[in-house]
Amino acid sequence: MRTLLRGGRVVDPGTGFDGVADVLLSEAGIEAVGTGLTDGATEDGVTEVDVSGLVVGPGFVDLHSHVHSVAGQRLQAMDGVTTALDLEAGLMPVERAYAEAAAAGRPLHYGFSASWGAARAQVLAGIAPDANIDSGLAVLGNPAWQRSSSPTELAAWLSLLDAELADGALGIGVLMGYAPQTDPGEFLAVAHLAAMAGVPTYTHVRELVEVDPAIPVDGSAEIAAAAGETGAAMHHCHVNSTSGHHLDRVLATLDGARREGSRVTVEAYPYGAGSTAVGAAFIEPDRLRLKGLRPSSVVILETGERVRDEARLRQLRRDDPGAPCLLEFLDEENPRERALLHRALAFPDAVVASDAMPVSWPGGRSESTEWPLPPGGRTHPRTAGTFAKTLRLMVRETGAWTWLEAFRRCSSLPARLLDDVAPAARRKGHLGAGADADIVVLDRDRITDAATYADPTRPSVGVRHLYVAGVPVVADGKLDTAALPGKPLRGEPR
């Protein structure tokens, strides 16, 4: 199948081109970008699509997606995503994760990091990983894996991570924020492993000193110092949610590390609430208080319950620690706090990443091949709306980014983080001849999010076409339920 996208505004962050052109693509990749690619009548076997007046760019590469279902990836497709990777938490064993995704089929490309949390849970708590996100959420609140390791235990779980890298993991995902009292030497050991293997780390940092003066080391300072000492490429996940009101200090710390030559990158999403398991360490009542938050800042996803007091929160954490919840850390209606979210996105070279969460329905159902999705689905609205909301805020409403900068933040920069660990990533995030045919075509005047906290599975508006490996997953704004062209992105054997 060959397709000619004719007459669109082509935006290519790989070359800096922003102008009217045609794009010729096939399942093998992008064949050419230019004008008059098929002079006169369209060639036999080429499907022509008129995209005049629309913006054409490389599909969005989401480094931080915990969506492992057709249902969730379809929401992300309608948000412009063509590659959805679980790198902050990862899954273990990665070989099983890749095999199960391939067997089920995926609308989008997919990939996984080696899971620091799962490796530690196996060694410290005897919990065998099963490459399942629900099992991973259930483990988060288990204190058995959150302690520091003995030298023998440290060596054992580092060996597990090394083996996962050999099996194609895209780096190491580190949920440090879920075990914030662990020995900082362990994190440094992970950074040394990553540097030796030539792979990135993707870290949910531990608490900041402003929040907990007794923390072993400031979370953001720790990642900067480890990158500087080891030379590892270290990615700071969702800086908006882990920094909260202390964002400006954290960004200054990261900027200083970069200026000194450290390989520190950062991501953000445009929401004032996060989502995780209610048993997470940082949702413990005393830690919420340190952040200036209350139990009422926590909302249980399945029931919509806003937690009334500390006693109820402790009960929920005890009875069902893996239950997904929302944690409201900034008030998006407050201009000052909304400005913090804007500054997180605007930080130089910050990439957009969703932290998309699984979609579930009452009764524990976590997958659906119906489209539109059945009513009653629960998730965080960032699953459906992160990229469209970012474009609305940063391009349409404030003009903070040009379209070229938007595609650089959403497509090119995230793909470039993976160039060393997965050379196949070099074909993503740009529109040069030979690049992967992962393309989003959007209406620049209508692109916006539609998902809300009350109705989180409403698809974004304004993605007119989406091609994944040259296959139309979205055409004329409608999702093709038969299209499952997603392919694995794997690390190079180490």
Mind explaining what this structure looks like?
The chain has helices at about 70-75, 95-105, 115-125, 135-140, 150-165, 185-195, 220-230, 240-245, 245-260, 285-290, 310-320, 335-345, 380-395, 405-415; strands spanning about 1-10, 15-25, 30-35, 45-50, 55-60, 60, 80-85, 110, 115, 170-175, 200-205, 235, 265-270, 275, 300, 325-330, 350, 440, 465-470, 470-475, 480. By secondary structure, it is of the alpha/beta class. A hairpin with a 4-residue loop joins β1 and β2 (about 15-25). The radius of gyration is 22 Å and the shape is globular. The mean pLDDT is about 95.
Q: Which short descriptors sum up this protein?
A:
494 residues, alpha/beta, Urease, subunit C, domain 1, TIM Barrel, 2 domains, nine-stranded mixed β-sheet, six-stranded parallel β-sheet
Structure, briefly:
It holds the Pfam family Amidohydro_3. The chain has 494 residues and is of the alpha/beta class.
Reconstruct the topology from this structure.
Elements lengths: L1 E11 L4 E10 L2 E6 L11 E5 L4 E4 L1 E3 L7 H8 L3 E6 L7 H11 L4 E4 L1 E2 H10 L7 H8 L10 H16 L5 E3 L9 H14 L3 E3 L15 H12 L3 E3 L2 H5 L3 H13 L4 E5 L4 E5 L7 H6 L7 E3 L9 H10 L4 E5 L6 H12 L4 E2 L29 H16 L5 H14 L22 E4 L20 E6 L2 E5 L2 E2 L15
Parallel strand pairs: 1-4, 1-5, 6-7, 7-8, 9-10, 10-11, 11-12, 12-13, 13-17
Antiparallel strand pairs: 1-2, 2-3, 5-18, 14-16, 15-16, 18-19, 19-20, 20-21
Helix pairs in contact: 3-5, 5-6, 6-7, 7-9
